[in-house]
TrEMBL record:
Pfam families reported in the protein's UniProt record: COX5B
Example GO molecular function: metal ion binding
Gene Ontology CC terms: mitochondrial inner membrane; respiratory chain complex IV
Predominant location: mitochondrion
Keyword Mitochondrion belongs to the record: yes
Protein name: Cytochrome c oxidase subunit 5B, mitochondrial
The gene coding this protein: COX5B_1
PROSITE patterns: COX5B_2 (PS51359)
InterPro entries: Cyt_c_oxidase_su5b, Cyt_c_oxidase_su5b_sf
Chain sites annotated for binding Zn(2+): 88, 108, 111
Keywords: Acetylation, Membrane, Metal-binding, Mitochondrion, Mitochondrion inner membrane, Transit peptide, Zinc
Length: 124
């Protein structure tokens, strides 16, 4: 008895699955096809996608640019104020914290790398 029920349900599933793809395909294509991510995006997601197309990164989602850390090419640290606390890792054992102030590049007291504060506007 159980084998008959299992066989019937398998037979029904097989006959339904053959007819369904054509119906689903026709119904989806009637409205112009499946929309892309850009067409479906709304709100913050749409703002981020539009900015990415223009090459901007308003929410700092992309990986930051690499700097040499020398006096001529210091690490750029974005800040919305005129000072910011910066941490520099020393020998993978401890973090050395120091204040970075607006103006010229400043040197880390531990490793000697140079950092410079740059103004950053929040995208409201």
């Amino acid at each position: 008895m159980a084998a008959r029920l299992l066989l019937r349900s398998a037979l029904r599933a097989a006959t339904v699955s053959r007819a369904s793809p054509a119906l689903v395909l026709n119904r989806g294509m009637a409205a112009g096809g499946i929309p892309t991510d850009e067409e479906q995006a709304t709100g913050l997601e749409k703002v981020i996608m539009t900015a990415a197309k223009e090459g901007a990164d308003p929410y700092n989602l992309m990986r930051p640019k690499e700097y040499a850390g020398s006096k001529a090419d210091p690490h750029m640290v974005p800040s919305i104020s005129n000072k910011r606390i910066v941490g520099c890792e020393e020998d993978n054992t401890a973090v050395v914290w120091f204040w970075l102030h607006q103006g010229e590049a400043q040197r880390c007291p531990s490793c000697g790398a140079h950092y410079q504060l740059v103004a950053h506007e929040l995208p409201h």
